[in-house]
Design goal:
TIM Barrel, eight-stranded parallel beta barrel, single chain, alpha/beta, 247 residues
């Protein structure tokens, strides 16, 4: 019998310091995830809401807030002009003290929204500035957040990785910038796999958002790899049998 050495690299969810926020627009799934002690907050966006078939933005948001009133949750503006962003942001912020208003880092014409962010944070609106991908953007956003209320900065590490770049150096630099701005937290956004949760935690990222399909894999954390190997073999065998393959 082969003797295996203990695996000192086995991860544990309980050891994580990072806050895990669920990202989605399925109310039933969100309410169910709220029962999970590892989930500390929620985010959504217009794309997720559109895919979920939601047409009444405010109705959905208010219903969700009534169902999970104790969690921080981010809702995004969908305007593309600064005055309308401000108007929408103030409406959204009024829905609850636990609401963060997501403001894109630029509009669709690549024009900075720093002025919007500055006005909102200075007036006490909690913002989640979203869709950042560079350290330069993090610095500009933090300057706009200076002296304001609690805020989050969402850097899309997963999308950075989609371009073939390692997001860790950018996320590490973002943390260094944010360190001098009390009350601002860094979000590792758009993770592509559960491993990203542990990577984000290892560098001290404050929050990671993850879709429901990634969060479903939390139950696999620390699973014995030999057992997982056998489960995979059984899956292949069962699927082949179900398909009725023959040669």
């Amino acid at each position: 019998m082969v003797q295996t050495q203990p695996d000192s690299t086995v991860p544990a969810v309980a050891a994580l310091k990072i806050k895990i926020f669920a990202d989605g627009a399925d109310k039933a799934a969100i309410v169910e995830l709220a029962k999970n002690a590892h989930i500390k907050g929620f985010t959504t966006n217009p794309t997720l809401m559109c895919k979920a078939g939601i047409t009444d933005y405010e109705g959905f948001a208010r219903d969700l807030l009534a169902s999970i009133p104790a969690y921080p949750i981010s809702f995004e503006v969908f305007a593309d002009e600064n005055p309308e962003m401000l108007r929408q942001a103030k409406i959204i912020a009024a829905w609850g003290d636990n609401v963060y208003v997501k403001i894109p880092v630029t509009n669709t014409r690549r024009e900075s929204t720093a002025a919007v962010v500055r006005e909102l944070t200075s007036s006490g609106v909690k913002v989640n500035v979203t869709a950042l991908m560079t350290a330069r953007q993090v610095g500009e956003v933090c300057a706009a957040l200076e002296g304001g209320t609690a805020a989050c900065v969402s850097v899309f590490a997963g999308r950075i990785a989609d371009t073939g770049r390692d997001p860790l150096p950018i996320m590490t630099e973002a943390l260094e910038i944010i360190a001098s701005h009390p009350g601002v937290e860094l979000i590792w956004a758009s993770p592509r796999e559960l491993l990203n949760v542990f990577q984000a935690d290892s560098i001290g990222t404050h929050i990671i958002t993850a879709t429901h399909d990634i969060l479903a894999k939390l139950k696999l954390v620390g699973k014995d790899l030999d057992d997982y190997s056998l489960d995979t073999v059984k899956m292949f065998a069962g699927d082949a049998l179900e398909a009725g393959f023959s040669l």
